[in-house]
Amino acid sequence: PLQEQFTLRMNAKSIELAAQLVPATYIQQGLDAVRSREKLVTTLLAQRRLPDDGWDDGSVELLLQTLSAMDSNNFRGSAGAGEREARVFSSIVARRHFYLSHGVGRSGDVAAVQPKAAGSSLMVQLANAMAKDVLRFAGLRAVESALVLPVATGMSLTLVLLQLKETKPNARYVIWPRIDQKSCFKSIVAAGLTPLVLETVLVKEAGKVGGQLQTDLVGMAELLNRDGMGIDGCSRIVNKSLATCSSSFKLWQAKKISFAMTLATFCPNIADTKEKSRQLTLLGAMLFSRGVSGAR
Question: Which ranges constitute the DSSP H helices of the chain?
Fold first, then answer.
């Protein structure tokens, strides 16, 4: 069985020999602790979803080390000269990645199982299964599969837009509520679509300095109906900036934190430009620590 590859359980002879060095009761106690960790792995392989209780670091490391030992480049006595077998020069880099460095995928299919990397391939499949579980937990009950890829914001959005473009081939436009995030704009262009930039509006409140930047919903409605495009003619690919770029921009009705301010009168009592720049940096760091980013 597959789970037998993960076991570190001593065989009867090993237990007998160990008992000659340490009392058998202590050996058995230690084996029980090891088996409790093995049970976690067995449950993960069987259920293929996020565990109800989080694992401790030791259990996670045990799983990763066991998976890496299943890759051919980590076989004892292996020369590591295969086509996809990893050869890591720096031992620091190897340890940092738990010696998991073998390539995955096969023949252009990143989701395919790599025969020489059983451990890495298994880790990929487990990651995909847990990602699907997270999506379903988030409310996307219709999700049938998931694929975890090491890509950043721009490429992720490009892949999503390309998929939406395939399902709606007549769509050409993406309404983009403008934010200071270049990845969103570049992903639209890379997907072969045309961005319709929607400027944000500055809403001022009586008795308060500055204001708040909000999405122009009226302008969005006008874009949807511009030149008779209508809902069907205009792409429904509305770039959900508030969701996909939450780390760069946040706007919550219950706790609005987006704002505009001028730096013309910032620290007027400080003449030294370097000190003023330092104070401005401190202000930016304070805002970022409170979830406000993209400040200009």
Answer: 12-18, 24-47, 57-69, 91-96, 118-137, 153-167, 182-190, 217-224, 230-233, 241-244, 273-289
Report how far residue 133's alpha carbon sits from residue 71's, in angstroms, rounded to the nearest whole number.
Answer: 26
- Asked whether residue 144 is assigned to any structural domain, the reply reads no
d(CA 288, CA 296): 12
CATH code of residue 89: 1.10.10.2160
Q: Is the Cβ–Cβ distance between 123 and 110 less than 8 Å? A: no
Q: Are 71 and 102 in contact (CB under 8 A)?
A: yes
How distant is the alpha carbon of residue 273 from its chain centre? 39
Using alpha carbons, list the distances in angstroms from residue 289 to 216, 250, 260.
27, 13, 18
- pLDDT on residue 246: 40
Interacting residues of 111 by C-beta distance below 8 A, sequence separation 6+: 105, 124, 128, 147
For residue 282, the enclosing domain spans: 261-296
**Regions of the chain with pLDDT less than 50:** 1-8, 228, 230-256, 295-296
> From the CA atom positions of the chain, what is the Rg in Å?
27
This prediction's pTM: 0.61
